[in-house]
Description:
With 328 residues, the chain is mostly helical. 66% of the residues lie in helices and 3% in strands. It has 9 helices and 2 strands; from the N terminus they run αααααβαβααα. α3 runs antiparallel to α4. The N and C termini lie far apart (91 Å).
Amino acid sequence: MTRRLRSGLSAVLISLSCLLVPFGALTAWAAYGLADTGHYVTTMAPLAADPDVRDAIADTVGNGILDQIGQETDSRVLRATVAPFVHDAVRSFTQTAAFRTAWNEGNRVAHDAVLRALRDGDDDRGRPVTVDLAPVTAQVKAQLAQDHVPLADRIPVEHTEVALLPAQDLGRMRKGFHVLEVAGFWLPVSAVAFAVAGIGLAARRRRAVTATALGTALGGALLALALAVGRGLTLSDLPPEVSQPAVGAVYDALTAPLRTTSWLLVALGLTVAALTWLTRRRPGRDRPRPGAGPRPRGRLPRLRPGRRGRSPETTPPAPPQEPTRVEA
Length: 328
């Protein structure tokens, strides 16, 4: 394989690795973060103390109770006497430990119902995924009766089911969820494999490591930007009756691990790129040629042609002289 071909294949593999970094982080978060009931309940538990979430829940539950009472009483009496007590009672209930327990159990039940429908709910086709809010209504009714609120004993505690997933979208969501589970494992593995193969195949591995690190940092930055854009789009598409601050708080809580991952990718990539640049070899002035030995110091004496093997300091012996004849 020629040097140019190796460099081209290395660039392709490193580009694929950097491209898969944000998608791999996103699918892994969705497959292993959101799909875990315990992790989901732990993530959502602090929202029970968030003021925006509590106000949204108080308004939703209070309006539902008033709708149930309004079927049996006059609307004018309802607005004048009962409505303020109901909303105050629900708001005071959201500040108690019982509400936090009901919040955690409600999230657990809802998450289990959604996962059951997405994974093995083929026999429930045609029916939406719902969660029952009767326990919350019963606790609110008990609080109102304890405060001697008028008509509190007339609040019907029925199995109020709230639809979580519509029936017509369950088939498409099941297919997408199965694809997400597979991609959540293979995309991160493929990103690492492409990066290792690209660095190992590169003609100049130091440059390949630097390019991979910078591409990883760029992928993390794009992931953080996508989360910010997704938050804006989510809040802009809400109906008017839904509280935007409450939905924003839920969005921030769910995506907090993903935002942390994106900034870790940015920090890791920039750190590796900086270390690679700082530890590079700096060429000197007298750089030896490949295959040449160490350059000798000082001047060497010149050897005459054909005088191999003789020391330059040794003087060649003089030729023998014939003896001088003396005539008598």
